[in-house]
Amino acid sequence: MAQVFLQDIPFLEEKYRRHVFDEEGTIHLYRHLIHPHVPQMGFVGYNYTFCAQLSAEIGARWLSEYIKGNLSLPSPQNMLEDVTAELEWRKKDRPYAFVSGACVTPFTFHYIDELLEDMGLSTRRKPGNLFGELMMPADPSAYKNLRQELQAKQQPSLNDSAIAANVEVTSVR
Q1: CA-closest candidate to residue 62, choices 132, 150, 135, 164
Q2: What is the pTM of this model?
Q3: Which tens digits make up the pLDDT trace of 15-34?
Q4: How many CB atoms neighbour CB 88 within 10 A?
Q5: 130 vs 47, 66, 72, 117, 122, CA distance in Å?
Q6: At what angle do helices 146-153 and 52-68 cross, to 10 degrees?
Q7: What is d(CA 63, CA 44) in angstroms, rounded to the nearest whole number?
């Protein structure tokens, strides 16, 4: 009998856990990172993907921008509708790529592009080479300057230091 790996968050209070996982163990997170009814918590790494390090790194950057208030996101209701629509589409039209509501290839780079667009960054990582962008293997080093791109795009807020001082990173093993 094959074993199935399901992600879990046993440390999270049940009232919040019910929002993140449904009865089937499907993860319900906007951009696979936040849930509007689970305040002040982000979930990096809850999107199964073959580019886990890259998508987790960009997701962490997205969460940082979210915490700083630098993202314009839809209303909580629209976020939930977006999550539901994406999950329904994947179950119906792409069942081979559906794993507990996760982001699985070939959708990894679409997902990364969504995060970049939310942060106001270009999704084009090989400027001037559209053919290379579409046909060549992905190059994770094309994303190495995201922090500098974000800094060039916006002036640092006065709260950046205060936010950084109050952000707690917890690792669950």
Answers
A1: 150
A2: 0.77
A3: 999 999 888 888 899 999 99
A4: 10
A5: 27, 30, 28, 18, 13
A6: 20
A7: 8
